[in-house]
Amino acid sequence: MCAADSPLRLRVQFTKQGQARYLSHSEYARTLMISARRAGLPLEYAGTNMSRMKVSLSPPLPIGVTSDCELVDFNLTSYVPAAEACDLLGKATPDGIAPAKCRLMGPEAKPVGKVIDTAVFTAAFPETVGGGELEDAVERFSEMSTLPYQRVQPRRTRTVDIRAGVHGLEVVGETEGRISLKMTVDDGIAGTIKPWEVVEVISGMAGIGREVWQQAEVNRTGLFSRRGDRLISPMDTGAGRSGAGRGARGVRY
Amino acid sequence: MNSTHPGSLADRLQPLLLRVERPSRYLGGEWNSPDIPAESTSVVFAYPDVYEIGMSNLGLTILAEVVNDIEGASAERAYAPWLDMEAEMRREGIPLFSLETKRPVASADIFGISIPHELTFTNVLNLIDLAGLPLHASDRTSGPIVVGGGCGVTNPEPLAAFFDLFVLGEGEEVIGLLVEMVGRAKSQGWGRTRLLEEASRLRGVYRPDDYLPEYADDGTLKEMIPQSGAARKVTKNLVDLDDWLYPTHPLVPFCEAVHDRLNVELFRGCTRGCRFCQAGMTYRPVRERTAGEVVKLVDELAQSTGYDEVSLCSLSSTDYSRIVDVTSRVAQVCEHRRMIMSLPSLRMDAMSAELASRLDRGGRGGLTFAPEAGSQRLRLVINKPISEGDMVDAVMCAVRAGRRRIKLYFMIGLPTETDEDVAEISKLVFRLRDAVKAEKLTPPSFNVSVSTFVPKPHTPFQWCPQITGDEIRHRQDILKATLRARSMNLSWHDREMSTVEGLLARGDRRLGRMVENCWAAGGRFDSWSDHFDFERWMRAAADSGIDPGYYLYRQRRPDEVFPWDHLDFGVDKEFLQAELSRAMEATTTPDCRVAECSECGVCEGLSVQPVLKGSDS
Ligand code: SF4
User: Fold this and answer.
1) Structure confidence at residue A173 (pLDDT)
2) B35 at the A interface (CB within 8 A)?
3) Are residues A107 and A122 in the same domain?
4) Is B605 in the pocket of ligand 1 (CB under 6 A)?
């Protein structure tokens, strides 16, 4: 490690699986911060204690949902090779949370929490759900231009246009006898459509009962910023001086 | 979720986790969680409150590590499930489980329940019931032995019917002996009765069955009659802190615990001699840990936990004989590891305030002091003779260090207290504020927290009546009327909770039925004001033929036999009686660390000596 002449940002893609899926967003954030301290990374703080650690996190994941892609930026006070950081974090995180990739970002890169607007989720339905009924519902959903949805929250209930926040929806093949719904939805700076909301709506249209769709296993597979019809991963952009990842690669959805 | 152990309930628990508040309370798998061998003498330590409170309990953390360090033994944990989880578990027929392996607690060999205070009694019963065990020890013929420990066993009599054993005092050594004995009992095929008989011979182990209360016609206790050769008294355990360098791998929870920091003990015991303070009497004598060991522990634990704060905890941390040295050395560790240090219980003088302010340079929050009483006379009565000059110095020092908030703890209802003494609390706070103003400094805000004094066993005030609910209200009203200023905030404890706490604190075995009735009527989480139901307690008392006034408001005779007299925490009853007389004369007794021995009886009775590490490194 050596002193940085300007701030560095370590961007990490974590997976959140197993029992870690039951952690709330604040518990998960705390877990990452403690892990980073245990890893001995040269972390930057705005004040004296952990709550003032300079970090930026990707949008919250609902409790119970697993993820292949949770992103976080740690501000560093000195240089650490990305591979070494990944290794140190791998030893410091608890079961269920693991770093998949790390990269260093230049000072001009926007914090990860300020660039993500889209997430891709899959929802694997129980074996009793057949593909035909879901496909029909997805087709009807895709043909709609708007679809009001009553979002019930602890303090208020409001109506959102769930159709406008869903940018891609498809039924994907069977894995271990289970049909999955793959959805590309608003998640982050431009608003959020929760995966369970889409599952509920599509299941309703397909005539699948609540007790069945509630058993679906939901997983976040990617986080992106949307440019037209392209999805750009924050792991591939904004590398700045540290070199890696210049020339954003995009995937179409 | 670990489901590899035979009998694990992990798969059945998964669906419940999505239906309850804060599922992380039931996960386990925190940093530093031990690997639990499938075949071992297994202990489950349970705490009768929610996870985030139980995880802050240093005692259980230490005991679990001690057991896990024993070859062939394992310790797991359980906490009181919150109401939503309890409802789900009962609906699904899922018993209380350990966080580590998710096995039913009933499959363990020892079920150790920490009893922190009286308002957890209904939760204690709930833990036993949720484990699927018969509530009454006499009805249990199989399953784990149920053992109680912690601060609440200074008088465990209201819970006597529900426990097989209690452990008095510090448990580090005796838990190892008990585990070893249970292992032997398993391998040699002892029956439950033999095991309990043998265990009751271990030092500090109290088997309630070995003592039979006999009551006089006036309802007072005549005698606790030892059965089948039991000793007249059971004497507490204590340990040398330098021999027990624990914890070494404290668990770090995923959620924020109430004390979300590393806790390292400087010393145990306190001989300041505050006459209301049970811990000050029952943890004697003072035993300090060597400064070098403290610094080493902080450094190692900082690395193994990742915490950003360390608390050097003790009953009165600034009384540590090398406090300046140890804090400056720990400060260097903190600097290196980007941590802050805190001293949780400060004496109210300039030195302590200055030290605390220097340590916590970020000035996180304010400083907290506990003058306890408003008038000098009453402070002499309780043997906490802080002068007003010292208080002013402490506040000035805190303000000069940039502190904007001062929290002050007081009590109402102390023996001999008058309305004037209560009003003195307000006057004192105003005088402290005016002293700051006189120096042309901006006064801090004063948060004044007032609790009701509850007379506790093994203290000089154990003979004294508690004030009635009406009297509590009257004295709170005096404060509400007099402590009015923009920069002063007054808060007080719920008077009905104090009443129930007082009833249970000096209760006898006859209260067991009342606790059971209250639990059966739905009593849970009584220390949470929104779940405490005074009417439920009073109905339970009436249904059990208990007159709360008898336990609460009666001045005890000097020669009265108390339900806890056969539990020897070291301090002689004669000393406590003499201290009560000195209190009535407003005469103080000095701290034996700085003055002569005041002959409390601990050192002679337990063959120990105060351990001060003033010259050690
Ligand atoms: S016996 Fe004397 S020296 Fe020992 S704790 Fe009591 S007062 Fe202190």
Assistant:
1) 77
2) no
3) no
4) no
Q: Which residue has the higher pLDDT, B472 or B340?
A: B472
Q: Specify the higher pLDDT residue, B315 or B578.
A: B578
CB-based contact B306 A48, cutoff 8 Å: no
Which chain A residues contact residue B29 at CB under 8 A? Answer: 19, 94-96
Say whether both A65 and A142 belong to one domain.
Answer: no
Do residues B285 and B307 make contact, with C-beta atoms less than 8 angstroms apart? no
Count H helices and E strands in chain A, helices first.
5, 12
In terms of domains, do A89 and A143 share one? no
- Which sequence spans correspond to the domains of chain B? 261-345+587-617
Give the pLDDT of residue A6: 54
Domain boundaries B261-345+587-617, CATH class = alpha beta
CB-based contact, A145 to chain B, within 8 Å: no
Give the pLDDT of residue A50. 60
| Contact of B399 with B409, CB cutoff 8 Å | no
Q: 3-state SS of B149-203?
A: ECHHHHCCHHHHHHCCEEECECCHHHHHHHHHHHHHHHHHCCCHHHHHHHHCCCC
Interface test with B, best of A16, A25, A45, A50 (most B CBs within 10 A): A50
Does residue B602 line the site of ligand 1, with CB under 6 A?
yes
Mean of the per-residue pLDDT values of chain A? 88
Give domain status of residue A236, yes or no.
no
Q: Does residue A86 belong to any structural domain of this protein?
A: yes
Q: Give the pLDDT confidence of B116-157 residue by residue, as tens digits.
A: 999 999 999 999 999 999 999 999 999 999 999 999 999 999
CATH code: domain of residue A160: 3.30.70
Distance from the alpha carbon of residue B507 to the mean position of ligand 1, in angstroms: 28
CA distances from A194 to A219, B16, B128, B305 (A): 12, 21, 41, 34
Query: Does A45 reach chain B within 8 Å, measured CB to CB?
Result: yes
Say which CATH number the domain at A13 has: 3.30.70.580
Whole-number Å distance, alpha carbon B565 to ligand 1 midpoint, is: 20
pLDDT band at A244 (very low <50, low <70, confident <90, very high): very low
What's the token pair of residue B610? 């105060």
Kindly state whether residues A144 and A78 are assigned to the same domain: no
pLDDT in tens, B526-538: 999 999 999 999 9
Residues 96-125 of A with CB under 8 A from B: 96
Hey, how many other C-beta atoms are within 10 angstroms of the C-beta on B140?
Answer: 17
Chain B residue closest in CA terms to A64: B18
Q: Is B285 in the pocket of ligand 1 (CB under 6 A)?
A: yes
Q: Which of A63, A88, A112 is the last residue of a domain?
A: A112
Q: What is the DSSP string of B483-521?
A: ---TTEEEEE--HHHHHHHHHHHT--TTHHHHHHHHHHT
Is residue A143 a part of any domain in this protein?
Answer: yes
User: Do A104 and A128 fall within a single domain?
Assistant: no
Angstroms from B440 CA to nearest CA on chain A: 30
Site to substitute for ligand 1 among B236, B268, B271, B573, most atoms within 8 A of C-beta:
B271
Residues A122 and A149 in one domain: yes
Report the residue of chain B nearest A47, measured CA to CA: B362
Q: According to the model, what pLDDT value does residue A39 have?
A: 94
Can you tell me the distance from the alpha carbon of A32 to that of B522, in angstroms, rounded to the nearest whole number? 39
pLDDT value, residue B364: 52
Mean pLDDT of chain B: 94
Instruction: Domain of residue A171: give its range.
Output: 118-230
Q: Are A97 and A123 within one domain?
A: no
- CB of B610 closer than 6 A to ligand 1? yes
Establish if A239 belongs to a structural domain.
Answer: no
Q: How far is the CA of B121 from the centre of ligand 1 (A)?
A: 32
Q: What percent of chain B has pLDDT over 90?
A: 83
Cross-chain residue pair A34–B252, CB shorter than 8 Å? yes
Question: B298: CA distance to ligand 1 center in Å?
Answer: 30
| Alpha-carbon dihedral B109, B115, B120, B122, rounded to 10 degrees | 40
Nearest CA to ligand 1 atom 5: B285
Q: Whole-model pTM?
A: 0.93
Give the helix ranges, DSSP H, for B369-444. Answer: 376-381, 388-400, 419-438
